[in-house]
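Field notebook, page 378. I keep forgetting to write these up properly, so this time I am using the form the group agreed on. The chain and the ligand, (6S)-5,6,7,8-tetrahydrofolate, are recorded exactly as supplied. Prediction of the bound pose follows.
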Amino acid sequence: MLQLLGVRGLSMVEISLSRRLRRTPFSDGVEAAGVKGYTVYNHMLLPTVFRSVEEDYRHLKEAVQVWDVACERQVEIRGPDAGRLVQMLTPRSLTRMLPGQCYYVPIVDETGGMLNDPVAVKLAEDRWWVSIADSDLLYWVKGIAYGYRLDVLVDEPDVSPLAVQGPKAEDLMCAVFGEQIRSLRFFRFSLFGFAGRDLVIARSGYSKQGGFEIYVEGGDIGMPLWNALMEAGKAMDVRAGCPNLIERIESGLLSYGNDMTDDNTPHECGLGRFCNTESAIGCIGRDALLRVAKEGPVKQIRAIAIDGPPVPRCDRHWPVLARGQVVGRISSAVWSPDFKTNVAIGMVKMTHWDAGTAVTVETPEGLRDAVVQEAFWN
Ligand code: THG
């Protein structure tokens, strides 16, 4: 029986809810909207599907969605040593970063291994939010603050991101927050009023359809804001949505824990463009990364097109083969209705990472021909 499950897989299982699996300030709205699937992210509920992954995808690319991404928890760092501490975490140089800016920052340990890939939000010289992916970064940051006797406070504040994504996102945001929204630049934030409170709003988000992220400070205004967006967006066909597996693979957005772990350097992840290791003085993984960056990685994340009909759910690595030898592994894969092929993200050895290289992918449903791509599909 166990073997049968292993072979055929479970199509549906129930996640048992408890206090350990945290709800969000928007969970009531998500449930009322008919959420059909959840995953767990930072010990919190993250919706994965409303109507179907394909219907959600089509709607995201044509209209506007409101996403409960409260699971993108904030590690707040404040105090005189805040800037110094954030630079200790990342090989991306922060010396030119100003308050009002957001940076996508690889976070590395002393070996150069990726611990997280958050968005850093610089609120002030002495106050930062690190908007984390799915790993318990808080404890690493607290440990460094304590171990180095830094003059900072590190905690997880009551701040829950709500994303508004899709081609009509700007119109919807204007209806709720005013025309000033339009002048917000990519990866910049400003303060906007709602219910008598000032909220950080950035032009950013985990899709390439355009949009914003509202850092909702105070869970009590979560549902009032959710309802205001749903009401204002009626004429734009606004719907509850969530990070979409198809769209994020097409867009080349990486998923920590899926596409990379602490076994990978930023360079292996193709995040070398977010590293200025030479000038990132103080970064804990600096020496290790200077060494690996000099040689260059021997394997790297690539976009890969997998031939044939829709692949099954990818919930484990699928070997990538060439002449019968393992030359890599697929970590994310799904059928793309727009590209009419299976789009995938995988780690491939340098001998086989050139665009156009033909490989074979060992899926749970058999071998498939596949081709390494020049870039992602966007
Ligand atoms: N927004 C916020 N927090 C987050 C995410 C987010 N925390 C978890 C997770 N997502 C972190 N991972 C990513 C991955 C990619 C991007 C943002 C967060 C991203 N990348 C763009 C790219 O790669 O093209 C832009 C990067 C840039 O140009 O600086 O946006 O989505 N708050």
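OBSERVATIONS:
- Residues 20-72+158-249 form a domain with the Gyrase A; domain 2 fold (CATH 3.30.1360.120).
- The longest helix spans residues 137-147.
FOLLOW-UP: compare against the apo run.
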